Amino acid sequence: MNKTGGTGKNRLSLAIRNNLVGYSFILPNFTGFFVFILIPISFSLVLSFMQWDGFNVMSFNGIKNFTSILNESIFRQSVNRTFIYTISCVVFTASASLGLAVLLNRKFKGRGFFRSAVFFPYVASIVSIAVVWRLLFMRDAGPINVFLRLIGLTDPPGWFASTQWALPAVIIVAIWRSMGYYMIVYLAALQNIPKELHEAASMDGASGFKYFWKIVFPLLTPATFFVVLMLTINSFKSFDIIFALTEGGPGTATTLISNYIYNKAFIAFNYGQTSAAAMILFIIVALLTFFQFKLEKKIS
To answer: Please, what is the angle between helix 39-47 and helix 271-299, to 10°?
Structure first.
């Protein structure tokens, strides 16, 4: 009896030790999540119902923060611009990434260099990118407008100085910067497709675009879902590239929700409305993510 009981205790203590070892590995991650994500999100949720400027005492404000920003034309316009920016970035970045992946998946001399060159903008300094593109898009001496004049466009747009063309210019830069990263995702997916499928399709007479559309593209569905999901989330919370290029201007022409939140927090010092806008952004992204997961399940 004692021997059996001792064996049971040893097994129990061994299980406890194993659990403690496992918990010790995940504890730093949970600690970081709790301190840097859960607590700030909870505080932001509480703050969205408060009136606070960072200096005076907090006071309960109910849903006034939400109603105030929803009645602001600047906020509504920033939501519209965010959707335009997100849709444009998702569609064109995913398409460009897939096209580049297909091209750079072929064997040719210098393939590694071109892969690195396309990926480089994603890891380059955002400040350096902004400086270079502002020079490229200069109205009078910028290489892009010089080229447009050479091909017959006598009055090229002012790009970042134009309220009409500033957002398209920002979208172009955002697509150029991100497409290299998502190209890597598609490259990995393409290289996981068995070569036997290509050989079988060739024997059946499927080649070129028909082979890609009927066989390759359906197999890329998981990668496409990941790319679209990450592009959607990253585009909705995009801030750094816009701030570096235009600071949300000229006027409010490139002010997205993230820029609106920044302005409310660090210019207007209205942290209650800042948190309310952040909660609205969180709800929009959460709903879009939920619907994307539902759509992915139906497709798969």
So the answer is: 120
Q: Where are the beta strands (DSSP E) in 42-172?
A: 50-51, 59-60
- Residue at 130: amino acid letter: A
d(CA 22, CA 2): 30
- Here the tokens at position 134 are 């502002």
Rounded CA gap, 68 and 56, in Å? Answer: 20
Query: Which tokens hold the place of 26?
Result: 């995940």
Provide the 8-state DSSP code for 269.
-
pTM for this structure? Answer: 0.89
C-alpha distances out from residue 196 to 202, 208, 215, 222, Å: 10, 16, 12, 20
Beta-carbon-side half-sphere exposure of residue 222 (alpha carbons within 13 Å): 7
Alpha-carbon span 50 to 30, nearest angstrom? 28
CA distances from 209 to 102, 106, 162, 216, 261 (A): 11, 15, 40, 10, 45
Reported as half-sphere exposure (CB side, CA atoms, 13 A), residue 161 has a value of 11
Please, how many CA atoms are within 13 Å of residue 250, restricted to the half-sphere of its CB?
A: 10
CA–CA separation, 21 and 49 (whole Å): 41
Amino acid (one-letter) located at 185: V
Residue pLDDT, tens place only, 36-50: 989 999 999 999 999
Query: Radius of gyration over alpha carbons of the chain, in Å?
Result: 26
- Interior CA angle at 295 toward 292 and 300, to 5°? 125
CB of 186 within 8 A of CB of 115?
no
For residue 250, say if its preceding peptide bond is cis, omega within 30 degrees of 0. yes
Q: Which amino acid is at 172?
A: I
pLDDT digits over 165-213, tens only? 999 999 999 999 999 999 999 999 999 988 777 777 677 666 677 778 8
Question: Is residue 79 classed as helix, strand or coil in its secondary structure?
Answer: helix
